[in-house]
C-alpha cells in the first residue's frame, strides 16, 4: 500500500536577546529559564512561520529545495504562549527544513526578536511528538521551580546540558530515525 | 434526495440513497453535500486540532511571571493530551474491524446483527453516520420473479396454516367435550416404536432423512452434524462426495497454525468422524478367531495370555488388516477391533440357547470408509466359510463417532459426558475410572489401547456445559495410581453399544422442544434432572496413541449411537476450556495435517499399496491434472522441458503422479545403461518385470509391514522382498528444502565399480569428466551428495575442503604480500589475470551441477515417491511421508550400512534441484 511518509518536527523557540540574570533581582524575581522560554508575540501566525521557513529554504537550497519542501510543509500546532510548534514535512525533505530552521535567527515578524529555532524531536508520528512536548513541558515546570528555589543556578545548563538523562531536556530522541547523523547539533546553544 | 432531514428508520432510505455522492458544485454545495459526511469531516478536524493559548496568557501585565509561565505549560500539557485522546477516539476504523478475525463476516459487515452485541449500538450509529445501506429482511421487497413467487407462496401457506390451526383448535375443543362426556379414553393397543432394520450379511440403508433434505442425499449420506458443519466448513462438492459421505474438508476460517497449536500445546481439535464404518461380527469364539486370523491378526501375542485383556474386551486392537489374494497377502486398511465382554452367570440373554457350551462373542471392526466395502466383502466371504456360520452386520449408520485430540481433550470429555446413574454410586466401574481422569493432559498417557464403556446422560440436559474444576497438581497420586493399575478388568459387563435395543432406546431422545419446556419450569442455571423419558446413551471411549514414540498427543475416540452424535457434538463444541476458548472444529485436511506433523502415515493417502490408497492416488492424479490444465500455459510446469542436468530432459514418469507404475514398470529397459550395470544384474533374477506389465500397475504394488521389513534386514541370507513391494517411510530433510506430494525419492547414486577412486576424488577437478564424457553423470556424484551432510562437512578437515573448493573454482590466486611495492603488485595482478584456468570450451549449463548444487541421480536410483510433504511446524523443517521400493531400500541398506543406506535425495516433481533427506520406517 502506498503511504505518505511524513516526519513531524517539534521545535521550540529559544530567545537569546535578554542576558541571563536580567530579571533575577527586583520586586518579582523571575528564573533565567523563563527568559529563554519566553512567550512569543501574538503576531506570530502559522502563515508567517511557513513563509519564513520557505524563504529560508529557498535561499539555502534554491528552487529545487523550496520546490520539494513547499507542498508538504505544514504547521500542525503553534502555541505562542509556550513558544512551541510542530511541523509536518515529508520524510525525504525534513532535513532541508531543519537546516533552514537552524539558520533562522529571528522571529519572522516585523521587528522580530533574535531567537534560536531548536528542533527537539523528530518523529514519524505526531503522537510521539506530542508525548515529547508533554514531557518537556513537565520538565520545564520542574526546572523552573527548582531554579526558583535556588537549587540550580544555571538555566542554560538545565536547558541543554543536563547530566541526568531522565530529567534532561536535551534529548532529541529520534529513535524513529535511522540516519546516523540525525542526532547532531545538539549544542547549538 | 433531500439532504436536509434524512430518515433512516424505514426501508425507504435504502432505495433512494446512494452510498457515495458525487462532489457537488461550488455554489450551494454545502447544503447539497451529505450532512453526515460533513459532520464527520468536522469531527475529524476537531479531533486533530490542538488548542493553543495567545501569548498574553503567559504574561502578567506584559511582564514575565513564574505563575503564568507554569499555567501556560499546564494548559499546553492538557491540550496535547486531550488531542491524543480525541484522535484515538476518532480514528477511521469501523466497529466490525475490531471483531476478532474468526468472528468476522466480511460479506455481511453491513448487517449489524452479525456484530457482537456489545458493539452493535456503535455499529448502528456508524452506519447511520456514513449512510451504509442496511438490509432489513422483514422489509425487503422481492426483486426477482422467483423471489416474488416464493413470497406469494409463503403468504398463501401462512393463510393455510392459520386456517388449519384454527380448525384443529375447534376440533380439539369439540373432542374435549366428547371426552368429558365419555370419560377418559384409554389406549387399547400398545405398539412398539419401529426399530430400524438391520439386515445380516448385507449392506444396510442409510438412515431415513427428513423429506426436505432427502433429495440432497441421494448419492451420499450426511453426517449427523451436517447442518452445523456445512455452515462452518468447506464440505465436499455436492456432486463429488468422498466415500459416499458429505465430509467437511476444512473449516472456512484460516486454521493451519491454530490447529497445530490446539493439537499440541493448548486447546482441543474435534472431528465428527461418523463416516468411519463399523462392522459387527458375531459368532462362536473359535469361528471369530479363525476369521480374525484370516484377516491378518496372526501375531502370537494376540491369542495367548498377553492378548487376554483384548479378548475380554477391556482393550482395543488397532492395526492393518490384510487379505489373502492368490499367492500373497494384500493390505486392506487400518482397523480397530473391540470385543464385547462375555456375559457372566447362567441367566445370560446373549448366549445362544441352541449351543450353550459354545460361547458366542460379538466384535466391532471399525474401519475407514474407503476400505469398508473391501473389508465387508472379505468378511462376508470368510464368515460363510465357517461352520457354524457366523454373521456380520453393517453398522455404518448405527454407530457414529467423534474424535478429539489436544491437551484439553480429556477435560472436554469430562465436562460433556456425565455418567448415567439412577442412584449415586451405581454408575459402574468404567464410569468411575473415567470420572477420575481429571488432570490427564494427554490421552496417550493412559495404558496402551485403553477402552472405557459406560452410559451417559443426554448432554442436552446440562446444555451450556460448564468448565470442570481440575484438581491442582495434575500428577496427583490417585490419578497416577489409576493410570498404572487401570482397574477396568473386573466384573466387565457387556457394553451397551453392542446391544441393538439400547442403541435404539438411546436414539429415542426427547425432542429439544420438550427439553426447553422442562427448562422453562426449572430454576434458571440448574441442570435438568433425569426423568423416565431420558434414556441412557451407551458410549465407548477409545484412547489411542500415535505410532511414533515420545510425547505426542494421543486421540480420544468416542463411539455413540448415530442419532446421539449431534446432541453430544453441540455440547462438546461449546465446552469452555480451562485454558480459554472452545474446542476447534477440524476437517479432513486437519486430520492429515496432524498425522503429518506426528510423522504417521494417513490412510488412505499414504498407503498407495492398498486398494483404497491406489484409488485415492488415481483420483488425486486426475485432480492435479485438472488443476494443471486450468493454469495458463506460461505458468505451469512443462514436464517435457524440465532440465535435470547432464543432458537429461523431461520429468521422470508422470509429473502428476506418485508414479509407482513407472518405478516398477517395464520402462526400465528403455533407459540407456550408462555406467550402472551392477544395479541391473542384481535385480534381474528376482523381478520378473515384463511378465506383469499391465496398465493397472498401481494395483500390483503391495505394502509390506515395518516388522517384516526389519525381519528382512536382520536375516543373514540375502532374502528378497516380494516383487513390487513398497514400505512407508518418514523422510526428514537434512539441510534445507521442502518436499511436496509427488516428489521423487532417489537413493544415493551407487559408485561405479570401474572408477577405482577412493574418497580423495575431491582432488580431481570436477570439470574434467564432464568435458570428456558429455551426457553422463559425474562419477563422484555420491561424494558430492555426501559432502552436503552437515556432520560430514564438519568432520572433513579444512584442508581437504579447501582443496575441494579449489577444484571447483580453479587454483587460488597468488597471495599478495603486504610489504610488496607497486611493481610487484602489478605483476601479481597481471599474472593472476593471465593464468586463470577457465575450461575451454565452457561446459554447458547444468552439465556437472545445477547452480552449484549436485545433480540429481539417474533414473536407476529412483526408489519411491513422497505421498505427503510440507514444512512441518513441529519439526521446524521440511518433512514428508513417502513410499519407497522395499527391494531398493534393502539393496542400499545392505550396500552402505544403516547410516548411509538411509540417506536419500528428494526432488520435487517439476524441479531440477534435489535435497538430501534421511528416511525412517514409519
Note the main attributes of this structure.
heterodimer; A: four-stranded antiparallel beta sheet; 37% helix; disordered C terminus; B: 922 residues; alpha+beta; six-stranded mixed beta sheet; 16% strand; globular
Helix content of chain B: 25-40%
Low-confidence runs of chain B: 1-19, 21-31, 346-356, 667-695, 753-774, 797-810
Pairing-aware structural class of the strands and helices of chain B? alpha+beta
Give the averaged pLDDT of chain B, no decimals.
81
Biggest sheet: strand arrangement of chain A: 2-3-1-4
Strand composition percent of chain B: 15-25%
Low-pLDDT residue spans of chain A: 171-189
Approximate strand percentage of chain A? 15-25%
In round numbers, the mean pLDDT of chain A is: 80
Portion in helices of chain A: 25-40%
Question: Largest chain-chain contact?
Answer: A-B, 35 and 27 residues
The span between the termini of chain A is: 42 Å
- State the shape of chain B: globular
What shape does the CA trace of chain A take? globular
Distance between the termini of chain B: 72 Å
Q: Largest sheet of chain B at a glance?
A: 6 strands, mixed
The Rg value of chain B, from CA coordinates, equals: 37 Å
- What pattern of helices and strands is seen along the backbone of chain A? EHHEEHEHH
Strand order of the largest sheet of chain B: 14-15-16-13-7-17
How does the major sheet of chain A shape up? 4 strands, antiparallel
